[in-house]
Amino acid sequence: MRLLTLFSAFVSLLAATDQATASVSVPLRRVVKTPHSNATSNVEHPGSSNDTKIKRSELQEPLGGRQYGIGYAIEIGFGTPPQKFNLLLDTGSDVLWIPMEGCNGNICNNNPELYDPSQSSTAYNTGETAWISYVSGKTVMDVYTDTFHFGDLQIPNQRFGAATTANMYNTYEVYGTSGILGMARDQWDGLNSFVDLFNKSLITPATVSFNFAQNPNDSTLILGETPSELSNRGVIWYDNDNCADHKFCVTASSMCVVDKDGNENCVLESDHTYSALLDTGATINLVDTQVGAALNRFLGVSEDGSMPCDGPDISFVLNGKKFQWSVNDYATEDNGVCWSNWDVDNSLDGTYQFNFGDAFFTNIYTSLDYDNNKVGLGPIN
Questions:
Q1: 217-227 per-position pLDDT tens digit
Q2: CATH topology of domain 228-379
Q3: Are 329 and 313 in contact (CB under 8 A)?
Q4: pTM, 2 dp
Q5: Catalytic residues
Q6: Are strands 337-340 and 285-287 parallel, antiparallel or unpaired?
Q7: CA distances (Å), 65 to each of 117, 147, 178, 197, 220, in order?
Q8: SS3 of residue 223 by DSSP
Q9: In this predicted model, what pLDDT tens digit does every residue of 115-170 receive, in sequence order?
Q10: Distance (Å, rounded) from C-alpha 322 to C-alpha 298?
Q11: 207 and 197 in contact (C-beta within 8 Å)?
Q12: For the domain bounded by 31-223, which CATH number is listed?
């Protein structure tokens, strides 16, 4: 059984503005969670969106936590007056949903963060229904519009999902979170409230940068213009041309376990390149059965996921550039025991794909360009 260790992180969200900027601080949330990548969704009768413009501003939003079982969460609000919700950030899915009063499922049990449309003067039930499935569960929802509160931004008539049934691992009782903020590029269902911040020109340019430092207290998430001290660190931009479903990926041509003598044991098929999904919604890295078996063998991972704390490095060639992680970068130490942050998802078998979770963002400075469909990679420090 893998053990969980909580860490905290203060993460700032910055948005470019043509005027003087304001700063908004939101209380820190630390969360633990399980992976839920590979989301699929459906919505009936997508409706029209709202084109209201409001001022752009600088936003400072906290996120929390890292390492196995720990994800990043942010507090947002819906309604007039606003009802607050702590949502998991997920670049691997494209829907914002929150649980609704009277909903069924373990997400709703003993959860004080339930949306009550009767308590909002701006709530509107569109009459549409939607669903989204993750590896860790499924959510069925009614589609509402209401005022969306994101930092100091207030967006009227924002579409979102109000869950009527929600069964997932990341329950409020265990993790203290109440829903998911999808950050993928897709907007076909009209429920991607995050992308709407860009589509409605509330934040420009339409970029997100993840500056997740090894010390979570030094971590930042930046929306809009990147500060010069970060943009000057040597970020290289690549076309995001190998990724399906409007997500963000890198191309992996090599993944090798490097022993203490410098010898490499490579685990990817040499005659193929792999598409690696960048997914903040997965707290571990997911690989296919063949790659997982080879990794576990070379890393010395036991059946319960434990491994030597002096394990070898792992090197990658991603978009033609080499990166190398130490055992501290891909494993979690708890009470003298180390746990691998690699796991097997047999749905990836034969696809030449794998998923990078939180460990990628804590080891590689990552920027996502939504308008130009590019991924930027650079050194973390």
A1: 566 667 887 76
A2: Cathepsin D, subunit A; domain 1 (2.40.70)
A3: no
A4: 0.78
A5: 90, 279
A6: unpaired
A7: 31, 28, 16, 25, 12
A8: strand
A9: 999 999 999 999 999 998 887 788 999 999 999 998 778 899 999 999 999 998 76
A10: 20
A11: no
A12: 2.40.70.10
